[in-house]
Design brief:
This is YeeE/YedE family protein. Keywords: Cell inner membrane, Cell membrane, Membrane, Transmembrane, Transmembrane helix, Transport. InterPro entries: Sulf_transp_TsuA/YedE. It is a multi-pass membrane protein. It holds the Pfam family Sulf_transp. This protein has about 220 residues and is mostly helical. It has helices spanning about 5-25, 30-40, 40-50, 55-70, 85-100, 105-110, 115-135, 145-150, 155-175, 180-190, 195-215. The chain starts with 6 loop residues before the first helix and ends with a helix. It contains eleven helices and no strands.
Length: about 220
């Protein structure tokens, strides 16, 4: 009798986590991005302090306009140039409508660093609590009998394989712009084409490698 959750319970749990994260933070869920930001927390804190100075989109637009006018100059006097009021009004209306439809700059910024740290801590604590409550928690320094049988039983070779595998996973994650949580859960849930393609590629590759190992080994 398996002590793991049934697949449908796990699917419901992942869906609830993804939906709640999106509703609370108004941003996509991504574990690899959270890990990258937390490990470089000094740089991220500096960027957050800089972003705090420009939280007001209107003030930021006015500051950019003033800096542009100061650097390039205003050119000819606008009052000396004849303008047709009937032509200027539609342009101003279009500009106002485009500005109102444009998403605020704050929604395009990454989630706060403390939110990313809380996500990683919650993943660790959730796994720890699940292992303890199910009675399956114990410390070990190998990858289990399956890894010893399929890959290697030598500890040095195991460390080397895991290191190289971790580097490749990190490289692939950065190359694809997200990991299985960012693309597979959050991106596919939002029906983003790039996430659907990325998820199909890495899941298809995993299935192909599994069948290859099954045939070879």
């Amino acid at each position: 009798m398996s002590t793991y959750w049934p697949w449908w319970a796990g699917a419901i749990g992942l869906a609830l986590v993804t939906i709640n994260h999106t509703l609370i933070t108004d941003r996509s869920l991504g574990v690899s991005a959270a890990w990258d930001r937390v490990t470089h927390w000094r740089r991220e804190r500096q960027l957050e302090r800089m972003d705090d100075e420009f939280t007001d989109d209107q003030a930021l637009a006015e500051a950019l306009a003033a800096a542009t006018a100061e650097h390039f100059g205003t050119g000819t006097d606008a009052s000396a140039v004849p303008q047709d009021p009937y032509k200027s009004q539609p342009l101003e209306a279009d500009a106002e409508s485009a500005a109102s439809e444009r998403p605020p700059a704050t929604s395009l910024r990454p989630a706060p660093l403390v939110t990313q740290a809380a996500l990683l801590i919650s993943i660790f604590l959730g796994g720890f609590i699940a292992a303890v409550t199910s009675g399956r928690f114990h410390l070990r320094y190998d990858m289990g009998p399956a890894f010893r049988h399929l890959v290697t039983a030598d500890s040095i070779t195991m460390i080397a394989v895991l290191f190289v595998g971790g580097v490749l996973v990190g490289f692939g994650t950065r190359l694809a712009g997200g990991c299985s949580s960012g693309h597979g859960l959050s991106g596919c849930g939002r029906l983003r084409p790039v996430s659907i393609v990325a998820t199909a590629v890495f899941f298809g590759t995993a299935v192909a490698v599994s069948f290859l190992l099954w045939k070879v080994i």
